[in-house]
């Protein structure tokens, strides 16, 4: 029995919004830390819905390798990152993202793949990605849940929205020290 894509999209969107609400309820600010740009729960939900809409638009376009792309959204600004085969896919992904209602801007962090990866490369990249995510999670000074990690032939791409430059620098440093990482591409942005 095929699943209606609209119902699947609505279910994923509702689940993400529920998780955001639950996570926001338990969030406590450390009074010793400097204030950072914040968003309301409503904005977080809007961004989650917008991210889902962009992912759906990318998935609907068969010319775009949407599974190789990461989508991060903050206050309507969408950040695309990951690896694709050619410049045409980059342009289609940006155009498809801009066409989604509610998108205020698109930040392009997409990288061209170059030569094809082997099955061994893909397995190695999966291991490197897991190690980088573990290293970021292990450091309490990095907001690791705000950072997406993609690896291609040992090149790690970090993307997402973090609080400050110190977090970007720390994430890059931690990632570059992971065994198997040949290069770290920074596509991280500071929250506005």
List keywords for this structure.
2 domains; GMP Synthetase, Chain A, domain 3; globular; 192 residues; alpha/beta; Histidine-containing Protein, Chain: A; 5 helices; 44% helix; 3-stranded mixed beta sheet
The largest beta-sheet arranges its strands as: 1-2-3
Tell me the structural class: alpha/beta
Main sheet properties = 3 strands, mixed
Based on DSSP secondary structure assignment, what is the total number of beta strands? 6
Give a short synopsis of this structure.
44% of the residues lie in helices and 23% in strands.
SSE layout and pairings?
Layout: H1 5-25, H2 41-60, E1 69-74, E2 77-84, H3 87-98, E3 105-112, H4 119-138, E4 147-152, E5 155-162, H5 165-176, E6 183-190
Parallel strand pairs: 2-3, 5-6
Antiparallel strand pairs: 1-2, 4-5
Helix pairs in contact: 1-2
């Amino acid at each position: 029995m095929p699943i209606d894509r609209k119902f699947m999209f609505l279910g994923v969107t509702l689940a993400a919004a529920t998780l955001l609400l639950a996570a926001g309820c338990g969030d406590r600010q450390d009074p010793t830390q400097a204030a950072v740009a914040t968003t309301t729960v409503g904005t977080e939900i809007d961004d989650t819905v917008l991210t889902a809409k962009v992912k759906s638009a990318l998935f609907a376009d068969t010319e775009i390798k949407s599974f190789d792309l990461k989508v991060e959204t903050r206050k309507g600004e969408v950040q695309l990152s990951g690896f694709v085969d050619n410049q045409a896919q980059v342009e289609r992904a940006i155009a498809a993202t801009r066409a989604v209602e509610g998108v205020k801007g698109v930040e392009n962090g997409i990288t061209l793949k170059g030569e094809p990866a082997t099955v061994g490369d893909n397995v190695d990249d999966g291991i490197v990605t897991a190690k980088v995510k573990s290293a970021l999670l292990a450091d309490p000074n990095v907001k690791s849940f705000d950072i997406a990690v993609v690896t291609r032939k040992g090149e790690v791409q970090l993307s997402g929205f973090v609080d400050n430059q110190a977090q970007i620098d720390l994430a890059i440093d931690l990632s570059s020290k992971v065994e198997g990482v040949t290069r770290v591409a920074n596509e991280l942005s500071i929250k506005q």
